[in-house]
Specification:
The protein is α+β, with helices and mostly antiparallel strands. It is built from 22 helices and 17 strands. The protein has four domains: 11-162, Glutamine synthetase, N-terminal domain (Ubiquitin-like (UB roll)); 164-200 and 328-560, no CATH class; 202-325, Creatine Kinase, Chain A, domain 2 (2-Layer Sandwich), CATH 3.30.590; 576-702, Four Helix Bundle (Hemerythrin (Met), subunit A) (Up-down Bundle). The strands form three sheets. Strands 7, 8, 9, 10, 11, 12, 13, 16 and 17 form a nine-stranded mixed beta sheet that branches. Strands 1, 2, 3, 4, 5 and 6 form a six-stranded mixed beta sheet that branches. Strands 14-15 form a two-stranded antiparallel ribbon. Strand 8 (266-271) and strand 9 form a beta hairpin. Helix 19 runs antiparallel to helix 20 (623-653), helix 19 packs parallel to helix 21 (658-686) and helix 20 packs antiparallel against helix 21 (658-686). The two termini are 26 Å apart. The relative contact order is 0.10. It binds adenosine-5'-diphosphate and magnesium ion.
């Protein structure tokens, strides 16, 4: 019999969580730390030494040899530098194991090689990491041994944020402050905090590692840059929620165990739409923890795949022609005593606080649609958004029938008197229970969909951090709440004022609501009529970061300074150019060293065969060889021309800088890459499989 797996025994085993802290910390220290973690009280630095000691003892008891400040620079991945716990040897040559409060609170990694977007000249190397006690320390077990990882924020010598966590924490403060004003207006005196909660659903692909290593595009770019469609793609929809294959099942089991140990609530797993594509969703958590856990999930996915001789691809579009991978960011606002501000109840038309919250969110999304779109911009996502597999690049909000009806009533009659109710779903089978039907169906084409008691932002790319999207959501909603609270706190007749405010907000921002098919061309035109922005690519979206509107918003709530925003825009332009450059150079490399030589071999074989047939039997029909030779040679010369054009385009772009460079990569290099790919993919369909230099789409997607 196989071993018995008990998730509750494993869960949180490697986390310095509340239970461990209670056991290992003196009572007063535990209390102080808990106040900071739960109530947002300022951290008392005098407790750091005691906490560090307890953390070290606990870590060593679990076999840890090193500690690291774990942080999220703007590279898209996490960073860490490990230090052993050992001190300098004593005169007898012995070391003791130590870890001070100072080492817990502050780290000083050399920041000069992390992106700073001009915030720091290269010679200014200092950067600091600072302990974030609201995200618990954890132990990571891997080939390095056991390492104590301390979640930290990362900033420059002058205190500018160089990471994802700092603005997220700032935005959480902003939404907390403004949400509290709203709940107090409605007579709530019990709740102490409002916390944004996030549940990110993570999609990914698994491919066999040996095959992966044969493809330079996957190795260097994380996606295929060439590749003809196999005879079967995802058209039968038989992979979605399909039975999970053994090899993948073993991977998922291991992945769950590793994640549970780290305190990540991995809960849902299933096959996704494309062959070899899967999804994992955790149980939602506070935004800061959810973001950290999502980073840990992505890292663990890659590590565990390696153990199974597979590679986990988190790229947004590993394969052309089948669905790419995204990350649905489920977001809600919940009080510390468990009240979800996004919960409409059974009769939303009577729930005035909910209607105000909803109206403010609609306003926030309408006014700052550009920022929300920008938060999901990454190079890989350019292949997904608007390509009928993910939402279009146009931001709109789906509310569903029930809420749309309430809004209709409010806007046209000034009053909402009823809420549509879901009926009972008759199964028509005596032995099956009838089900309660939700008042509203779902809409999978909407980028921002209301989903019962949360909004689901469906635009984020699979490889991207969810931090930026939540920074935007928290801050833009904080602004809308602030503007509402400013009015309502002064109102003489609260009932009348809130009623008017809701009606005005809904009327003014209704254009952002769209319940129809977001994949249709008609919507693109309708959205244009409504004046909604349609930013098709990452390069179009980046300027949203530095508009006067954005600077005012972020400075008002202390989330970003102008300089921080400008640096982020700069980093994104650079990032875009670098990635397209790598992709282009990888294509050039594969085309010239692998594909063209293989095709030449094939044409030589064809020519030899043609000659041989003609010699052996002049009357025999050798037209197939002749036609293939003509066709192949023509495609080969197309490839050569396209290769030269791509090489030239790259040579022009590398000399440029910043925004102009990113634009040039998009205008010149991206089309040149497509032009090179087209003849190559046609050739793949003709050339002898034995000669083709790397595994095909079919090999990668169907033979995991
Ligand atoms: P699906 O949308 O695929 O049907 P669920 O609705 O169960 O799946 O949840 C998807 C994700 O949303 C999960 O990570 C879940 O924990 C999270 N989620 C559920 N409720 C909330 C909430 N109130 N706030 C934020 N996230 C939530
Ligand atoms: Mg979902």
């Amino acid at each position: 019999m196989s071993e018995i797996l008990n998730a509750s025994d494993i869960f949180g085993k490697n986390v310095f969580n509340e239970k461990v802290m209670r056991q290992r910390l003196p009572k007063d220290v535990f209390k102080k730390l808990k106040q900071t973690i739960e109530d947002g009280a300022e951290l008392d630095p005098s407790i750091a030494g005691v906490v560090a000691h307890a953390m070290k003892e606990w870590a060593i008891d679990h076999g840890a040899t090193h500690f690291t400040h774990w942080f999220q620079p703007l590279t898209g991945v996490t960073a860490e530098k490990h230090d052993a716990f050992i001190s300098a040897p004593t005169p007898e040559g012995k070391v003791i194991l130590e870890f001070s409060g100072k080492e817990l609170i502050k780290g000083e990694p050399d920041a000069s090689s992390f992106p700073s977007g001009g915030l720091r000249a290269t010679f200014e190397a200092r950067g600091y990491t600072s302990w974030d006690c609201t995200s618990p320390a954890f132990l990571r077990e891997d080939s390095c041994g056991v390492t104590l990882c301390i979640p930290t924020a990362f900033y420059s010598y002058k205190g500018e944020a160089l990471d994802q966590k700092t603005p997220l924490l700032r935005s959480m403060q902003a939404i907390n402050d403004q949400s509290m004003r709203i709940v107090r207006l409605f007579g709530n005196t019990a709740s102490k905090r409002v916390i944004p909660c996030v549940g990110p659903e993570q999609e990914y692909f698994l491919v066999d590692r040996d095959k992966y290593l044969q493809r330079k595009d996957l190795v260097y770019a994380g996606r295929t840059l060439f590749g003809a469609m196999p005879p079967k793609g995802q058209e039968l929809e038989d992979h979605y929620f399909g039975a999970i294959r053994d090899r993948v099942g073993a991977y998922m089991k291991d992945l769950n165990i590793e994640l549970w140990k780290l305190g990540v609530t991995a809960r849902t797993q299933h096959n996704e739409a494309a062959p070899a594509q899967h999804e994992l969703a955790p149980i939602y958590d506070e935004a800061n923890l959810a973001v950290d856990h999502n980073q840990m999930t992505m890292e663990t996915m890659k590590k565990v795949a390696y153990r199974h001789n597979m590679t986990c691809l988190l790229h947004e579009k590993p394969f052309a022609g089948v669905n790419g991978s995204g990350k649905h960011n489920n977001w809600s606002l919940t009080t510390d005593d468990g009240i979800n501000l996004l919960s409409p109840g059974d009769t939303p038309h009577e729930n005035v606080q909910f209607l105000l919250v909803l109206a403010c969110i609609l306003k926030a999304v309408d006014v700052h649609a550009d920022l929300l779109r920008e938060s999901a911009a990454d190079v890989g996502n350019d292949h997904r958004l608007g390509a009928n597999e993910a939402p279009p690049a146009i931001i709109s909000v789906f509310l569903g029938e029930q809420l749309e009806d309430v809004i209709d009533q409010l806007c046209s009659n000034g009053e909402a008197t009823h809420s549509k109710q879901g009926g009972t779903l008759k199964t028509g089978v005596a032995t099956l229970p009838d089900l309660d039907q939700d008042a509203t169906d779902r809409n999978r084409t909407s980028p921002f969909a209301f989903n019962g008691n949360k909004f689901e932002f469906r635009m984020v790319g699979a490889s991207d951090s969810v931090a930026p999207s939540n920074v935007v959501l928290n801050t833009i909603v904080a602004e809308a709440f602030k503007e509402a609270a400013d009015v309502l706190e002064q109102a003489e007749d609260f009932e009348a004022a809130v009623h008017d405010l809701i009606k005005n907000l809904l009327t003014e921002h209704r254009r952002i609501i769209f319940n129809g098919n977001g994949y249709s061309e008609a919507w693109v035109q309708e959205a244009e009529k409504r004046g909604l922005p349609n930013m098709k690519t990452m390069v179009d979206a980046i300027p949203a970061l530095t508009t006067e509107k954005a600077v005012k918003l972020y400075e008002e709530f202390g989330v970003f300074t102008r300089a921080e925003l400008e640096s982020r825009a700069e980093i994104e332009y650079e990032n875009y150019s670098k990635i397209i450059n790598i992709e282009a150079r990888t294509m050039i490399d594969m085309a010239s060293k692998q594909i063209i030589p293989a095709v030449i071999k094939y044409t030589t074989q064809l020519a030899n065969s043609l000659n041989a047939v003609k010699q052996a039997c002049p009357e025999a029909d050798s037209s197939v060889q002749a036609e293939l030779l003509i066709e192949t040679s023509a495609l080969l010369s197309d490839m050569k021309v396209a290769l030269a054009a791509l090489t030239d385009a790259v040579a022009v772009c590398v000399k440029m800088e910043s925004k102009a460079q990113a634009l040039a990569y998009r205008e010149k290099v991206v089309p040149a890459m497509e032009a090179l790919r087209t003849p190559a993919d046609k050739l793949e369909m003709i050339v002898d499989k034995e000669l083709w230099p790397f595994p095909s789409y079919g090999d990668l997607m169907f033979e995991v």
